[in-house]
Amino acid sequence: MKIETYISQLLYRYQCVTVPGFGAFLTETHPAKLNESTNSFFPPKKTISFNSLLKNNDGLLANHIAQAESTSYGFAVSAIAFEILNWKKTLEETGILNLKNIGDIRLNADQNMVFTPNDHANYLSASFGLSPFVSPLVKREIFEKKLEEIEQRETVKLYETEEETRSSRSYLRYAAIFVLGLGITGSIGYPIYQQQLANETLIVESAMQKKVQNKIQEATFMIQNPLPAVTLSVDSSKTDSVEIKTMPYHIMAGAFRSEQNARKAYNQLIKDGYDARMLGENKHGLFPVLYGSYATMSEAEKAQKEIQKGENPDAWILVEAL
Fold it and tell me: Model confidence over 129-142: pLDDT tens digits?
């Protein structure tokens, strides 16, 4: 009876398989391994070792053979003992015992058994079907070239963004010069000049605001209830009136999910002396609260600096879209 077949079967399931009167085969699990010199990858495996001092019968091998051969336990023990006699005889005659799928056992100069495991057998059931493989060498030069291309593209994008910013500023200067020419016509046209300058500035700043609004604040709010228009009379004519655009520059104090909390914040700002406003619920289900609204960006920035110094460092300006 070739009992090494049954030993192999048990090695998949147990860490120790004892062969009565001969020794014990022990298993040890190792993680996956990489050989950098050969670019070889090895899956996790269970290796085998041998201890000739463990000879007591634990019944594991005999019971397994009895069940597999449909025989009695006593017959299995006798079959194991007979096979062991053949193994020892082979060692004495040839000096080497080959156990299929397990390894080789040799006698050294001191007549002690030395075990060499079979490297091709992997007794880790979780790695069944996995085999070592060699990966082709990664050419890092290709990745370096791709990295350079990505950096070049990012540089071009940054340059284009700067050009757009310069163009917007130039457009703002031209608009100011154009409106200034209108104001030279006389004191009567001065309110018209102010209105035209404010409108042109608002167009440019609104366009820039749309480009950077996602970076300024995660939640951007569009004003649903703008301030009413104010009509002022010009003393020189007393008959003509100039309609001033609603104040489009707003300093945000916060946005609240609860209308009650928004009302508390609004009342506190009023108590602190701010010309505060509380807007209705926006499309995001929030109630925005403003420190105040201003006609020009310079006024808004000045107020923002004062608020950031003493009240809220995170206060930011929202430009209402035209």
Answer: 666 657 666 655 56
Query: Which tokens sit at 123?
Result: 């007794």
In contact, 222 and 321? CB cutoff 8 Å: yes
Cα distance between residue 102 and residue 5, in whole Å: 9
Closest CA to 130 of 46, 49, 48: 46
Collect all residues with Cβ–Cβ distance below 8 Å to 261 and sequence separation of at least 6: none
Find the angle CA(293)-CA(298)-CA(299) to the nearest 5 degrees.
40
Cα dihedral sign for 63, 66, 70, 74? negative
Q: Are 245 and 229 in contact (CB under 8 A)?
A: yes
Distances (CA, A) of 267 to 261, 270, 273, 313, 315: 10, 5, 10, 20, 18
SS3 53: coil
Record the tokens describing residue 105, joined without a space. Answer: 């056992």
* Token output for 162: 């700067």
Residue appearing with tokens 């009413």: 228
Tell me how crowded residue 22 is: count the other CB atoms within 10 A of its CB: 22
Tokens of 233: 């009379």
Q: How far apart are CA 105 and CA 103, in angstroms?
A: 7
Answer whether 289's CB lies under 8 Å from 275's CB. no
Angle ∠(260,264,265) on CA atoms, nearest 5 = 120
User: Which residue would you say has higher pLDDT here, 320 or 4?
Assistant: 4
Evaluate if residue 250 carries a pLDDT over 80: yes
Q: Among 203, 207, 205, 294, which Cα is nearest to 247's?
A: 294
CB 172 within 8 Å of CB 201: yes
Going by their DSSP bridges, the two strands 316-319 and 249-256 should be labelled as: antiparallel
